[in-house]
Amino acid sequence: METLGARSSWTIVGATIMTWAFLLYGYSDSYPWLSAIEIVVGFFGLSVVAMSWLHAEQSFSEGFAWVTLGVSITAFIVWCWVQVRVAPAYGTDESAFDQYAAQLVTHGHNPYVASMARSFSLFHVSPDGFTFRLNGTPVTQLSYPALSFLLYVPFLLIGWSNQLAIGVNVAMWSLAVIVSFILLPRALKPLAIVLGSLGVYTGFAVGGVTDALYVPFLVVAVFQWDRYPAQRGWRRWISPTAMGLAMAIKQTPWFVLPFLLAGIYLEAQRSEKDSRHAKSVVWSYLWRAGVVFALPNIAFIVASPAGWLRGVFTPIFGNAVPAGQGWIALSNFLGIGGGLLKVYALLAVSVIILSLVFFVLLYPRTKALAVLMPSFVLFFSERSFANYLVMLLLPTLVAAGSTRLVSVERGTMPLALWGTPRRRACLGASIALSVLSLTAVSLFHQPLSVQIESVTTTGQLATVVQTSILVTNTTSHQVAPVFSSESGGAITAPWNIVTGPSKLGAGVSTSYVIEAPNFPAQPSLSGGFQIVALTDSPPAMSVSAPYTPTTRHVDLEPEAVNKPVEVGVPTRLTAQVLTSTNNPVDQAGIRVFLGQISYTQRGLLFTEAVINNGQIGQTPVEALTNSHGVATFVVTGTQASVTPVYFEANLVNNTASYPYGYSNIVPIRFATHDVAQRP
Asked: CB within 8 A of 483, min separation 6: which ones?
């Protein structure tokens, strides 16, 4: 079975490397030299699969395993290089903040007392990469411990600044995978390659999510963490030093520390049967980690204690817009709870308590989960983004694969859990507190009722630029709402209020017209969106029901006209109305519009084709569908041109009159008889 498992693991590794080849192949037309790398990587991936099943015994030597890791890392780095060339702007405010803070340090300034707003334009961060507060203002305070930006300082001093944050991010994620590969036992080494190549991690690395910076340190910190009580001398510094460095980069490792300390205490107590000794072991770990954490931060703490505290606690107490893939999604999208966002803090605290109690009472069965437990805590927080939930998986794998796990017979529980009434009461109270907190989160109803009445679109650009909403204040006090749109799981920059009061009185119902502040904030017509109303006092959110601008679209046939068409010779185009899943809509009388235009390097040109016997150049022209949902258009060219005429069909909403459901574009070049008849 072990041989079969190893073969399966390395087969998945081979498939992962082949996937890298497929990803690189898509850019070979822009960078032809990539085709050579793609061929080598793809063939190597196939070879890994073949090698996995070639021999009856162990197929992989240690050297070949290292080569496999090297090919995977190289493919990842090359792919990241291409992504930077395609989209050089920084994708998040956190990467921009960190590099800008490092630049301020090199010029002798304290970044904790400076505004980070300049970094938005300096690193071309799109507004959808900002972090907004409930009052509608973007966060411009440096929000992380000092090592998050001090890592960049040496590179800035030697002259590297262009794409520095992304480059360091990619390098640190590569290092995390390599270190994990080294520390994992032989049977689990393939998982480091596979996990390290998952799109969520590689996308975060090149997209500017800076969690990759702390992962290598956290991996080292949790390696064989259960043996810390028995370590002596310099070895006793390794884990707390790495943990202190990880905590000095970002706040996520802070949540790992309590579970690690609890596990170390239990390990020391089990080995020595002495709680005093166990406490001294925990203290030795804690003060070492604390000293290492303080070293990169101390200068900034001394310079401005308030500025440093305000910065590092901004993600926790900064009144940021709630969002994420955890429990908060019920408030974001279904409108369940969210009427008092501070209750989410109580929920997070109760889950921390429950998780610690669960971890301790079920120990050592829970030993493998020591690093993963914080992900459950962050799942119930007010901001529970994917990086909070998944970035601990690689350290969890290393921790679980390197600790001495204790097997427990199936169907049994550790006697410590059920042995005393006090332990049972402790677990019961923790569960009750979490359930009550979860109930409280759901019971605080959203203060505003928001209903989308109509939308204004950008036409062929297929986005919503303005919307009319009916808002009712269901509370007994006045509120000052801030409106945003929510689509694709993200809350955009605050929308501008065109008409409507800035403050809404208790029990008042009124209509607002709000306008998207920028293009990234405009929802696409091809999917649904919601309007979110945020209030700072009290901190709350309210969401509308989803608004789906379009459920149908048009398919224009033929898909392509590959030869020039003679002027005066009619061409028949049919427009089939389809559902969102491409099923034909068998309905007569649907209005379909066909437009014509020419796209040139100098801009748009009005064209002079005739559609359905209309006037020359008339656009758009309307036709009604038959019982099969098909509208027919006959187009005839009136003049020859080297520039094609581009035809595109669309539908129009019957009540709001906005166009939607745009078809594929069919270019037709009209030519003289001689040109059209050429083979």
From this structure: 469, 494, 495, 497, 512, 514, 531, 532, 533, 534
